[in-house]
Amino acid sequence: MPLTAQENEVLRLSASGLGITVVADTLEQSFDAVRYNLTSAIQKLGAHSKLEAVIVALRHGLIDLPSA
Q1: CA torsion, points 18, 55, 44, 60, in degrees to nearest 10?
Q2: What's the whole-model pTM score?
Q3: Which residue, among 7, 17, 19, 24, has the nearest Cα to 63 in the 3D structure?
Q4: Any idea where the domains of the chain sit in the sequence?
Q5: For residues 48 and 68, what is the distance between their CA atoms, to the nearest angstrom?
Q6: How far apart are CA 36 and CA 60, in angstroms?
Q7: Which of these CATH numbers, 2.130.10.10, 3.40.50.720, 1.10.10.10, 1.20.1250.20, describes 5-59?
Q8: Helices of type H across 1-68
Q9: The pLDDT value given to residue 68
Q10: pLDDT tens digit string along 10-20?
C-alpha cells in the first residue's frame, strides 16, 4: 500500500531528526494528526519503529533526506 503525501512528508521530516511536536508545528497540523500519519506509515512499511520506517523509506526511494 503506497504512502499518502502526508505520511511521506512526516517521514521525510522525521528523517532529519525532528520530533513529532516539531513536525506538527512545521506542517501546521495537530500532534495527533502527525502521530496518526507516522503510525500509519510505520505499519504500511512493515516497520517496528520510526527509525526503521525512515530507513525502509530511504532504501526504497520513497523519501529523500531533507537538505540542511
Answers
A1: 120
A2: 0.88
A3: 7
A4: 5-59
A5: 27
A6: 22
A7: 1.10.10.10
A8: 5-15, 20-27, 31-44, 50-59
A9: 59
A10: 999 999 889 99
Residues, the chain: 68
Q: At what angle do helices 20-27 and 5-15 cross, to 10 degrees?
A: 130
Cell numbers given for 67: 537538505
Residue type, 34: V
SS3 45: coil
Which amino acid is located at 58 in the chain?
Answer: L
Residue ranges of the chain with per-residue pLDDT less than 50 = none
